[in-house]
Design goal:
single chain; mainly alpha; 3 helices
Length: 87
Amino acid sequence: MVGGVYSLFGPWSLSEVGAMTPSAGTYYTIARRAYGDYINFLVGWTDWISVCRGAAFISLLAGVQNQLAEILFRAFETNLRTTLVSD
């Protein structure tokens, strides 16, 4: 319960600042207004890196899952053939 209330504080604070900012954007625009160009640059890069890291992790997981499924299907197929032939 406490974690749910705590997780709502982030969107509430960003929505207040976002409503006061006249231009469209995410953390990048808010950081530019609050901290200036240098911090804005760092926020933009860290946001981009985190998005790329998430996409890379998902694609890596999909590749590992595909390889694991292939190994399991081969083992199941071999086991099924030996069971059917021995009967």
